[in-house]
Specification:
- By secondary structure, the chain is α/β, with parallel strands linked by helices.
- The protein has four domains: about 5-175, Rossmann fold; about 180-240, Orthogonal Bundle (Helicase, Ruva Protein, domain 3), CATH 1.10.8.60; about 245-365, Zinc Finger, Delta Prime, domain 3, CATH 1.20.272.10; about 435-540, GMP Synthetase, Chain A, domain 3 (2-Layer Sandwich).
- It contains 25 helices and ten strands.
- Strands 2-3-4-1-5 form a five-stranded parallel β-sheet, covered by helices on one side.
- Helix 5 links the parallel strand 2 and strand 3 (about 120-125).
- It is extended, with a radius of gyration of 42 Å.
- About 30% of the residues are buried.
């Protein structure tokens, strides 16, 4: 008999042999027991987690001669034919090669007839996201209103590519990634049945390399068993699975946490010399640093997916580096993952990111500086040879330039008498008047622009706030006397001096000009003052309108 690969030989044939998908198994078993069978199902998840296998098992359970509740017996004729793929009433179609709209139309026409022998006619459409938009449209009507005893089971690894019109007519089941521990247990059972010699550490490496896919992990185990003639060696597994040497990771992480840039460059050069894929090296090093972080938190080295000796050596390095340093390093490496993955010069991107990570342990925590800790000593910067200009090096006395003598300064003359400051055009609020300051503060909390206008012309007379407005401030007075501003003045005076306090205007001529020189504002100024935008500007900045210029004539 021809050799059958382990991934096919150990494919689940019933619900009990499915690995890591207990929520999905429980839901489908309950549906079979209660007879609540939907007309369309959608299984979504990454590759190799059991979507198509569950679809076959579910199809066998629906058509098994033992009945729905019993599940597949794998002994009756429908179960055996579905397992072999020869049942006429169970169609398994690959959407990647069956994506044209004409093919879907022919399929829908053939599905209008009932099953030939089995209880249900079942269509398993794998990789359904590969269908074209027109093919989805042709499939939509029969999925929404299928003939009696017709069931669709869709499987996809890209559920986002499936139209919402199809998703809304299906029961969705999401298959999760299988944990490395569950996969390792499954691989140990396969090794025991197949006579393969493999240590638990090697099986954990294989399970981890599968990245949550059971089929990928079983295929890797088959490959390693073939390479080792039935024996999976730890070192060979570590070398073949990634083509990497974990000793390189240990040296690289030690150089990063110690800040040894030269050793980091040497590790990057080794990646180039060995011909390794820099993106794969970077991904595996991320996982290695994550293991170090877990060990720094006290995880048992035996729970790490590494040989025990290497796990213990990594635990010693992690303890010496410290949890906080490793956390900062891992955070920076995660930030640089996208750049490394997309860069054309992957080795250069790895080298730059690792060098940046090597600078992190040299930083001093802010808490230490605030607590009186000394900042780190400045490191000498590499420069050219002796011809380079020295920095901050004292020169000999003979070579030092002599300072140029400054001209003698004349004897200081007595300062001239200070000129009297011009008095303000409006009476200003005295600084010592705390009561007036309270009013301005209350007004500033309500409207700062109004407080600025009032401060320029305010004084206090008992419990009365007097606003002395000059003849050229008629527009300012008009702004203050708006209904909203008067209400704010009432509230501010009452809040500062009590309910009996009041305020009033006191108009008069400007001190700097005689009364006769004052003239009423022109009509252009009055019209401008009525504009809402101009009023808002005056209110915000506390300004006034002096003149209005006519618009410029358009050029001919």
């Amino acid at each position: 008999m021809a050799y059958q690969v382990l991934a096919r030989k150990w494919r689940p044939q019933d619900f009990s042999t499915l690995i890591g998908q207990q929520p999905v198994v429980t839901a489908l078993r309950n549906a079979l027991a209660e007879g609540r069978i939907a007309h369309a199902y959608l299984f979504a998840g990454i590759r190799g987690v059991g979507k198509t296998s569950v679809a076959r098992v579910f199809a066998k359970a629906l058509n098994c001669e033992q009945g729905l509740a019993a599940g597949p017996c794998n002994a009756c004729r429908p179960c055996l034919e579905i397992t072999a793929g020869s049942d006429l009433d169970v169609l398994e179609i690959d959407a990647a090669t069956y994506s044209k709209v004409e093919q879907i139309r022919d399929l829908t026409e053939s599905l209008r007839y009932g099953p030939a022998r089995d209880r249900y006619k079942i269509v398993v459409l794998d990789e359904v996201h590969r269908l074209s938009r027109q093919a989805f449209d042709a499939l939509l009507k029969i999925v929404e209103e299928p003939p009696p005893r017709l069931i669709f089971i869709f499987a996809t690894t890209e559920i986002d590519a499936v139209p919402a019109t199809i998703l809304s007519r299906c029961q969705e089941y999401h298959f999760r990634r299988v944990s490395a521990q569950e996969v390792a247990t499954h691989l140990a059972a396969i090794c025991a049945a197949e006579g393969i010699s493999a240590s638990p550490a090697a099986l954990r490496l294989v399970a981890r390399a599968g990245e949550g896919s059971v089929r990928d992990a079983v295929a890797l185990l088959d490959q390693l068993a073939t390479f080792g003639a039935g024996t999976v060696d730890d070192e060979e597994a570590a070398r073949l699975l990634g083509g990497l040497d974990t000793a390189l990771f240990h040296e690289l992480l030690g150089a990063i946490v110690a800040g040894r840039a030269a050793d980091v460059l040497a590790a990057a050069a080794r990646v180039t010399e060995e011909g390794w894929d820099p993106r794969q090296v970077y991904s595996h090093f991320l996982a290695y640093v994550r293991d170090a972080l877990r060990l720094a938190l006290g995880t048992d080295p035996e729970q790490i997916d590494l040989p025990l000796e290497e796990a213990r050596a990594l635990a010693a390095l992690a303890t010496e580096a410290g949890y906080e340093n490793l956390l900062r390093v891992l955070h920076l490496l995660l930030q640089g993952e996208t750049a490394v993955r997309r860069a054309e010069a992957g080795t250069l991107a790895c080298e730059v990111t690792w060098l940046r990570a090597a600078e992190l342990p040299k930083l001093v925590r802010l808490e230490e500086l605030l607590g009186g800790g000394a900042p780190p000593a400045p490191r000498p910067r590499p420069g050219p040879g002796p011809s380079a200009r020295p920095s901050r090096v004292p020169r000999p006395e003979s070579a030092a330039p002599r300072p140029v003598a400054a001209p003698p300064r004349p004897a200081p003359s007595p300062p001239p008498p200070a000129a009297p400051e011009p008095e303000p055009s409006h009476p200003a609020a005295p600084e010592a008047d705390a009561e007036l300051t309270r009013v301005l503060e209350e007004l500033s909390r309500r409207r700062p622009s109004l407080a600025a206008q009032v401060e320029s012309c305010a004084r206090r007379e008992g419990q009365t706030l007097v606003l002395a407005v000059g003849s050229r401030q008629a527009l300012v007075a008009n702004g203050i006397q708006r209904d909203s501003n008067r209400r704010l003045l009432d509230e501010a005076v009452a809040a500062a001096w009590g309910p009996g306090a009041t305020w009033r205007f006191e108009t008069g001529a400007e001190e700097s000009e005689p009364v006769a020189a004052a003239a009423p504002p022109p009509e252009a100024v009055l019209r401008a003052a009525q504009e809402p935008a101009v009023q808002a500007v005056l209110e915000i900045f506390g300004g006034e309108i002096r003149a209005v210029e006519p618009p410029e004539a358009p050029e001919a």
